[in-house]
Amino acid sequence: MTTPLVDIDATPRLEHLLDIRIEFDPVQIFDTPVGRRLTYPIRRGRCEGPRIAGDVLPGGGDWILFGTDGVARLDVRATVRTDDGAHIHLTSTGRVWMDDAAATRFAAGELIRHDQMSAHSTPLFDTDDARYRWLNSVHTVALNQASLTQVHYRVFAVH
User: Fold this and answer.
1) Which Gene3D superfamilies match (predicted)?
2) What is the 3-state secondary structure (H, E, C) of the chain?
3) pTM exceeds 0.85
């Protein structure tokens, strides 16, 4: 009998934290030595959950690197202004992969649902506002849906 490398007897539990919808200005697409870059500047957005609601402010973006393996590597940075005036920095990394049919529909402007592609991310939050400091220690996973003009996240806290 072998000893496990890690002696942890646990299963993560997920709790719905919030939903985020972001609308983008037109995408900028260009090739670089490390892959195709897609830059999606944020036009506006909204996040809502049981303990938080606010607007995603213009000026952030999603800087995607599309690799030769067909995987899009996400790099999101944005600012959320809550309805009660707090500012929260949002970062997210993740991976997206679509089969040829979904990629064709995406290129035509369709919203591709989370169950029609592999699209997962990890939003993280930073703030010094006492009302929302609890977010600083929350690790998340999200299911994503995306089109050329918007992205939707269903975000879960991992416990």
Assistant:
1) 2.40.160.20
2) CCCCCCCCCCCCCEEEEEEEEEEECCCEEEEECCEEEEEEEEEEEEEEECCEEEEECCCCEEEEEECCCCCEEEEEEEEEEECCCCEEEEEEEEEEECCHHHHHHHHCCCCECHHHCEEEEEEEEECCCCCCHHHHHCCEEEEEEECCCEEEEEEEEEC
3) yes
Which segment of 8-17, 53-62, 138-147, 149-158 scores lowest on mean pLDDT?
8-17
Residue listed under structure tokens 């506002």: 129
Tokens for 25, please give them. Answer: 């200005």
Count of CB atoms within 10 A of residue 22's CB? 24
CATH of domain 14-158: 2.40.160.20
Give residue limits of the domains in the chain: 14-158
Note the pLDDT tens digit of each residue in 99-157.
Answer: 999 999 999 999 999 999 999 999 999 999 999 999 999 999 999 999 999 999 999 99
